[in-house]
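Service request form, structural biology core

Requester: graduate student, group of Dr. S.
Request type: structure prediction, single chain
Budget code: on file
Notes: please return the result as structure tokens.

Sequence provided:
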Amino acid sequence: DNVPLPTGQRRQLNATVNHQQGNFAIPIPAGVNWSIVGSGNVGTIGSDGLYTAPIVTEPKTVTIRAVSKLD
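Core staff response, request fulfilled:
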């Protein structure tokens, strides 16, 4: 999802890990590792999924990845 976030502001991100079993995806309490794709002035993300946007003067697109801790 694309979510506009003002410069320097924070947003709590959430992710659900699903286990594929046949045609069903079953949520499991595995947790995720958060990371930001790219480098430079992209902001920060904590292990709890709290993202802080960078201080910028022009709009910027940042991609955040959540990967299951089971992977």
